[in-house]
């Protein structure tokens, strides 16, 4: 053995902290995202308990505002985004026939900054008050003058750190998809999920810098006494709304496009048909992403931008219905003439279509500015965006998780429990959010801790709360399913659904550390399906068996993120007065910030100065078994 | 054109059905679905049109979905491969064109309404001008033409256009009377918003703050009271009359030093807190404790509400900036005395 140099292998927890393998990072994202999703879900249930009856006093108004703020922020940034990233990490390299992502080290860094940002944000619950200005954090309410606790500081700094991770992740996927596709996989042969990941990453690349700047400005206003948003000193609070929504609207598409991608994988597989109108799907995705950047001010019709602006943003928003419509009909016609199997994964995918259409049509209604003067900031809007985010994205994620679970973990989730999850979640969802459309039209504004009786709000709110509990039951059944499945033996075949069409189904479940022993040669859309139809059992390899280069595991990404976390905490408390003089000295003189940054920059220096060439897996060590059990 | 008309013809019966459905729920003085004025009526018309279009879309999609799911489920023993269809150019053009058409049908009246409602009436001689200033957590209404200021209850004459100029004294709020018109944000100086509505019928309409503004956002309600032109004129005069103070001179002194440092009655006091002139005749205390009113089941006697507020303002509206009268050194008797005085302070104008 010529290359028998020893490679440092970590075990147990250290294995997870040091891993740079995209498949393990996917699992980390899944666990962390699931954790935060649980927290956001508990917050949602508490909100719904409070609103179950009029003039309820289950929580105080302050706590309620913290609950809605943290629920929205947690769900969007820390709940569903990481689960999307989990699926992307688990699937995209496999779908394009790659051995890893382009920058495995950076991939790990992205995860750890996200995790520590999320932890920092949630620490606010136990460190003197959570943010309370809504997930949109409109100034002046979010300024130091009106939100005096550290809550909004946790928001700005926590999201800044977590956002860094997202941006890093997005760039990594862009690089991966551009450079690491298997031979023969042209752009127009890429699987739809890879396509949507690609477009999503591009949106991230353009949208996240906006929120980054916004958060920096708000941090400066709050901690360093700047005046970007303070009218009395020449600032402008409406500026925050523009910055926030120039990020915030594309963010919605960051969330929904991957769900589109998942649906475009699951439906063809379980209809045994190729995706109808592939190239129009690609085109529609790009168009949606583009329009997504042109419509931010439809969140601001009542801000008073003037007639011309309102008219233009009305029309551009309505136009998004066109490419979205294309997608819906393409999915329906994918099933047309097929042989549909109602597996749990496909139930979620099939349920996604009408539910998402519901969210889409109310979106068009909202786009009509004069009508939006009535809808805006009411429960109609709450209903609309939950139809999109929960009825669209969360159903999509459930579909994706049931679909790729065997590939990720080598075990098939229980179909029976999966179907139970679907029905309880779906029925609960419709109960919760359908009636909220009417609440909004009847005059119930959103973000209110309670409401007077006799306004015709009582019954519908009760129905909504009951629905929320039912959704909670659905999620619990899913967790039980995971626990039960995890205790079963690893026995999923390569292609557990038997009609797999893309490259990930050609390799073992779970895949070996290096994914593909030999990079496959791609000869068309749905590469694996094409080979199957030609009577082949496997892909034709594009290279001979050889030594495979692997990146080394390293704790540095973790250490860097810890450093940023410490620096963030230090900055936040830099103006506080503590009982202990020692604390005053280290915080007020930015010593904690400096220590944190030193840790981060030290780790960066180590990374740059110390050359790590990685290691190789030799052909004789390449067995066809999965790397993880 | 022909095609448009056909679509419209199909939509019309749907419109009728939905008008019925929509008007089935909600209170007349609160629901956007039961408009009480032309602005809200136009907005509802637009909503109905969009709902009708959307229902058409939903029906088509749901019908195709139902058909596909039933007709093409995989049956036992089915092994032959379905044909791998690439797509269909004609079909794809159709489902690009139809949504585009539907969007145009909605976009045209949308744009028309935007410009119709966006007219600036500030210089209209016939309009009643009202400057709305929002505060955490109360509403101030100034009538520059009459030089009067009131709070919480906005009194307007029926039929007249009311030209609003909106601003905030602190954070952003949003001014919303669903049954009369959609909402409009109150921004700080520099980005003032203007809009207008009118109420043809006498009545009391519920208004809400629609933008998260802090802890008592939910309690930042107000009422719009539309009265006849004569009543309105009498109200204006009554507002301009000199202040009525408590008869008990000692209590009056307490009231002046403790309350009028922020509040005003008639020609006395300050503008930092809601104007209290005629407060005993208002629809609610603090905007949220409803007073009993003829023809309305809910509400407590105004004296009870006044006492509840004065004995502990924080428990009614968390985070409001009024100091508790007790902490100002007033005894329970004095508080009850002031409550009684205020509850009886009514303007005779209706
Ligand atoms: C069990 C499921 C859920 C329930 C019952 C639920 C319920 C609620 C309720 C009652 C509100 C407050 C509405 C208000 O007054 O503003 C809310 C707000 C919100 N929810 Fe959910 N939600 C659920 C899941 C989700 C998910 C999965 C997401 C996103 C991925 C999400 C995103 C949001 C956002 C962004 C807000 C706005 C927060 C704000 O106003 O600052 N929700 N939700
Ligand atoms: Cu407000």
From TrEMBL, chain A:
Molecular function in Gene Ontology: cytochrome-c oxidase activity; heme binding; metal ion binding
Keyword Metal-binding: yes
Source superkingdom: Bacteria
Pfam families: COX1
Swiss-Prot/TrEMBL catalytic activity: 4 Fe(II)-[cytochrome c] + O2 + 8 H(+)(in) = 4 Fe(III)-[cytochrome c] + 2 H2O + 4 H(+)(out)
Ranges in coiled-coil conformation: none
Protein name: Cytochrome c oxidase subunit 1
Organism, as annotated: Paenibacillus sp. AN1007
Lineage, opening ranks: Bacteria, Bacillati, Bacillota, Bacilli, Bacillales
UniProtKB/TrEMBL annotation, chain B:
Family matches, as Gene3D superfamilies: 1.10.287.90, Cupredoxins - blue copper proteins (2.60.40.420)
Cofactor info, note text: Binds a copper A center.
Catalysis performed (reactions): 4 Fe(II)-[cytochrome c] + O2 + 8 H(+)(in) = 4 Fe(III)-[cytochrome c] + 2 H2O + 4 H(+)(out)
Membrane topology, from the record: Multi-pass membrane protein
Domain Cytochrome oxidase subunit II transmembrane region profile: 24-121
GO cellular component, one term: plasma membrane
Domain of life: Bacteria
Swiss-Prot/TrEMBL cofactor(s): Cu cation
Family matches, as SUPFAM superfamilies: Cupredoxins (SSF49503), Cytochrome c (SSF46626), Cytochrome c oxidase subunit II-like, transmembrane region (SSF81464)
Localization per record: Cell membrane; Membrane
Chief subcellular location: membrane
Alphabetized GO MF terms: copper ion binding; cytochrome-c oxidase activity; heme binding; oxidoreductase activity
InterPro entries named among the record's database cross-references: CcO_II, CcO_II-like_C, Copper_CuA, Cupredoxin, CuRO_CcO_Caa3_II, Cyt_c-like_dom, Cyt_c-like_dom_sf, Cyt_c_oxidase_su2
Domain Cytochrome oxidase subunit II copper A binding residues, every copy: 125-238
Enzyme Commission code(s) on record: 7.1.1.9
CDD domains on file: CuRO_CcO_Caa3_II
Domain Cytochrome c: start-end pairs: 246-346
Keywords, comma-separated and alphabetical: Copper, Electron transport, Heme, Iron, Membrane, Metal-binding, Respiratory chain, Translocase, Transmembrane, Transmembrane helix, Transport
TM ranges: 51-72, 93-115
A Pfam family hit: COX2_TM
GO BP terms in the entry: ATP synthesis coupled electron transport
Stated role: Subunits I and II form the functional core of the enzyme complex. Electrons originating in cytochrome c are transferred via heme a and Cu(A) to the binuclear center formed by heme a3 and Cu(B).
UniProt record similarity statement: Belongs to the cytochrome c oxidase subunit 2 family.
NCBIfam families with a match to the protein in the record: CoxB (TIGR02866)
UniProt name for this protein: Cytochrome c oxidase subunit 2
Organism, scientific name: Paenibacillus sp. AN1007
